[in-house]
Amino acid sequence: MVAVVGGGQLARMMAPAAAELGVHLRVLVEDPTTAAAQVVVDAPVGAASDEEAIRALVTPGGASPGADVLTFEHEHVPNALLAALVDEGTPVRPGPAALVQAQDKIVMRRRLTELGIPCPRWAALPSDPDQARAALTEFLRATPGGEAVVKTARGGYDGKGVRVVAEATAADDWIDAHLAGGPELLVEDKVPFTRELAVLVARRPSGEVRTWPVVESVQRDGVCAEVIAPAPGLAPELAEQARAVAVQVAEGLDVTGVLAVEMFEVPERDGRGSGPAVLVNELAMRPHNSGHWTIDGAVTSQFEQHLRAVLDLPLGGTAPTARWTVMANVLGSTLERLTDALPELGARFPEARVNLYGKGVRPGRKLGHVNVSGEDLDEVRRRAVAAAALLRGESIEES
Ligand SMILES: Nc1ncnc2c1ncn2[C@@H]1O[C@H](COP(=O)(O)OP(=O)(O)O)[C@@H](O)[C@H]1O
Ligand SMILES: [Mg+2]
């Protein structure tokens, strides 16, 4: 039995993979209507921060089987509790020492810097507001483009804890909020990247590691809108470098399960003719939006691989099954029920692989995605984006 904390779409998409592997999945869901609760039979309700609920998830008692392993679909689980469970003999994968690197961007930057992993120039801001403003002003003075990116160390997602600033006062509210118990802050150079890449890697406790091809992720307003697999026109040496960096992170941080490494592709590492390079942006220790293409475009999906990895089973192949796969996210919709779009979508894009998460519609919310695979990238991309547009309730011209 695999116990999963978190009832969103990532846990939901583990369900078909668990069914295929014959693995019993038990998911701790926030309430009985979440994306995962709709499809997972064994879905107790409770908060990720609730010790009782986590303990009951792992050891339900009665005739129910205990968990072979505890894993996650998000990083927001109290670390002390996980450490206690490990001490008591429950396998927790990824383990708490690894997971903290994905919970806190300052801890992550510090560790990656120690490991010699290429990152943007960064600094943690002091907790005293005046010192924080002074440090930010100082940092901005040294940044090449005159702009920097301030981030909350914890709790951010989909660009919500990220702000581009040109002067220290632009972060005043966050700096003040920190003193009132808000998250710590860090600042980074605003990287003049050519595009954003991601490498998905899986690692099992016995050490086996596999990466999927490097993908390009297209972000809009800090949110992933499209993923192109593999990243078009990526120099083979750079692809090799990106995959090596991801493996180095997985091994250096002792990650088990699936790890997504978000990266920036930059034209120059050092501005002295060294050529293109990658810098690591952030880490997610779980299946990730940049890997949804693997459900339909790779031999083994990230969801199946995550289950295999946390169960310490041999990892599945990661080769793509098509020349190109494009994933387009459905972000918000004017439709009340996305399924109303299926007749037209199915008729116009029979090759499109639709995945809807069963979530209520809210502006900009990730409600589902579409994968399209094929030989001609422009065509594949156009059709994936058009199919996703139908699910957003837009009318489109031609197929
Ligand atoms: N140092 C940076 N330079 C330029 N853009 C950045 C930088 N950091 C983040 N961004 C942009 O903001 C997006 C979200 O930032 P990220 O740190 O990944 O936060 P989140 O946890 O919200 O995903 C990134 O995908 C990228 O587009
Ligand atoms: Mg991110």
Automatic annotation (TrEMBL):
<keyword id="KW-0658">Purine biosynthesis</keyword>
<dbReference type="Pfam" id="PF22660">
    <property type="entry name" value="RS_preATP-grasp-like"/>
</dbReference>
<comment type="function">
    <text>Catalyzes the ATP-dependent conversion of 5-aminoimidazole ribonucleotide (AIR) and HCO(3)- to N5-carboxyaminoimidazole ribonucleotide (N5-CAIR).</text>
</comment>
<comment type="subunit">
    <text>Homodimer.</text>
</comment>
<dbReference type="InterPro" id="IPR040686">
    <property type="entry name" value="PurK_C"/>
</dbReference>
<comment type="similarity">
    <text>Belongs to the PurK/PurT family.</text>
</comment>
<dbReference type="Pfam" id="PF17769">
    <property type="entry name" value="PurK_C"/>
</dbReference>
<dbReference type="InterPro" id="IPR003135">
    <property type="entry name" value="ATP-grasp_carboxylate-amine"/>
</dbReference>
<keyword id="KW-0547">Nucleotide-binding</keyword>
<comment type="pathway">
    <text>Purine metabolism; IMP biosynthesis via de novo pathway; 5-amino-1-(5-phospho-D-ribosyl)imidazole-4-carboxylate from 5-amino-1-(5-phospho-D-ribosyl)imidazole (N5-CAIR route): step 1/2.</text>
</comment>
<dbReference type="InterPro" id="IPR005875">
    <property type="entry name" value="PurK"/>
</dbReference>
<feature type="domain" description="ATP-grasp">
    <location>
        <begin position="109"/>
        <end position="311"/>
    </location>
</feature>
<dbReference type="InterPro" id="IPR054350">
    <property type="entry name" value="PurT/PurK_preATP-grasp"/>
</dbReference>
<keyword id="KW-0436">Ligase</keyword>
<keyword id="KW-0067">ATP-binding</keyword>
<dbReference type="InterPro" id="IPR013815">
    <property type="entry name" value="ATP_grasp_subdomain_1"/>
</dbReference>
<dbReference type="Pfam" id="PF02222">
    <property type="entry name" value="ATP-grasp"/>
</dbReference>
<feature type="binding site">
    <location>
        <position position="196"/>
    </location>
    <ligand>
        <name>ATP</name>
    </ligand>
</feature>
<comment type="function">
    <text>Catalyzes the ATP-dependent conversion of 5-aminoimidazole ribonucleotide (AIR) and HCO(3)(-) to N5-carboxyaminoimidazole ribonucleotide (N5-CAIR).</text>
</comment>
<dbReference type="InterPro" id="IPR016185">
    <property type="entry name" value="PreATP-grasp_dom_sf"/>
</dbReference>
<feature type="binding site">
    <location>
        <begin position="188"/>
        <end position="191"/>
    </location>
    <ligand>
        <name>ATP</name>
    </ligand>
</feature>
<dbReference type="GO" id="GO:0034028">
    <property type="term" value="F:5-(carboxyamino)imidazole ribonucleotide synthase activity"/>
</dbReference>
<protein>
    <recommendedName>
        <fullName>N5-carboxyaminoimidazole ribonucleotide synthase</fullName>
        <ecNumber>6.3.4.18</ecNumber>
    </recommendedName>
</protein>
<feature type="binding site">
    <location>
        <position position="151"/>
    </location>
    <ligand>
        <name>ATP</name>
    </ligand>
</feature>
<feature type="binding site">
    <location>
        <position position="105"/>
    </location>
    <ligand>
        <name>ATP</name>
    </ligand>
</feature>
<dbReference type="InterPro" id="IPR011054">
    <property type="entry name" value="Rudment_hybrid_motif"/>
</dbReference>
<feature type="binding site">
    <location>
        <begin position="281"/>
        <end position="282"/>
    </location>
    <ligand>
        <name>ATP</name>
    </ligand>
</feature>
<dbReference type="InterPro" id="IPR011761">
    <property type="entry name" value="ATP-grasp"/>
</dbReference>
